[in-house]
Amino acid sequence: MCQECNNTSISRRGLLGGGLALSMAATAVSASPAMAQTSDAPPATPEEALQRLKDGNARYVANTPRYSDHSAGRLSRAEGQAPFAAIVACADSRVVPELVFDQGPGDLFIVRVAGNFISEYGLASLEFGAAVLGVKTIVVLGHGNCGAVYATIDSIKDRVLPPGHLPSLVNAIRPAVYDVMADNPDNLLEAATARNAQLNAQKAAAADPILSEMHEAGKISSVAAVYEISTGKVNFL
């Protein structure tokens, strides 16, 4: 690493101040994909951002998508980005947030890992999305029949950790499974999947100092949801 880079520190104030400038610049130099294909204005509040996701999912379920021409706005997107929402999604190949919420390229800032939990790297990514890019809402999106949650349940029941680096996934999801096991739910997998999304949405909201202060100021929201692959519907918790 170069000495100049090593000696450079980024203060929180600098990050937020620079983020405001970058966000304004991105909006100025390029229309968002939503603006490129519709007359919708960018959502101004967390509530508006969340409603846009809900409306998009309703279109996806009804098979009436608005975003099908992904070439629209391609040149302007090269100049910058201004996503309105961040999605913490599972790495499962069947979960495609842009399709699930019927949004165009550039609309969603996506953090993905098997089991949709928030690691330190994921948290840093969300901080960047919120403070620099200006996302208005964070959705932690679990999904039905999640293999990572299923593997965690099996590991707990069998008292055996999986091989390789898989224990890191199991250990991250384990708290959600333990939380719901005490209630003896009819469907442990469904209950643990929902709880895992809820715990990580709470983690995002409480993360000091950047995200917690933005939540307290009403600049961003964090919510949990579960996507049902068979129906396409997202259930917000």
From TrEMBL:
Catalysed reactions, semicolon-separated: hydrogencarbonate + H(+) = CO2 + H2O
Look up the record and name the cofactor or cofactors this protein needs.
Zn(2+)
Q: Name one GO molecular function term.
A: zinc ion binding
**Gene Ontology terms describing biological process:** carbon utilization
Q: Where is the signal peptide?
A: 1-36
The record's section on Gene3D superfamilies has: Carbonic anhydrase
One Pfam family linked to the record: Pro_CA
Q: What is this protein called?
A: carbonic anhydrase
In this chain, Zn(2+) is annotated as bound at: 90, 92, 143, 146
E.C. numbers? 4.2.1.1
Q: How is the cofactor bound?
A: Binds 1 zinc ion per subunit.
Entry annotated with the keyword Lyase = yes
**Which species is this UniProt entry from?**
Flavimaribacter sediminis
Q: Which family does it belong to?
A: Belongs to the beta-class carbonic anhydrase family.
InterPro entries of this UniProt entry? Carbonic_anhydrase, Carbonic_anhydrase_CS, Carbonic_anhydrase_sf, TAT_signal
Top class in the EC scheme: lyase
* Alphabetically ordered keywords of this record: Lyase, Metal-binding, Signal, Zinc
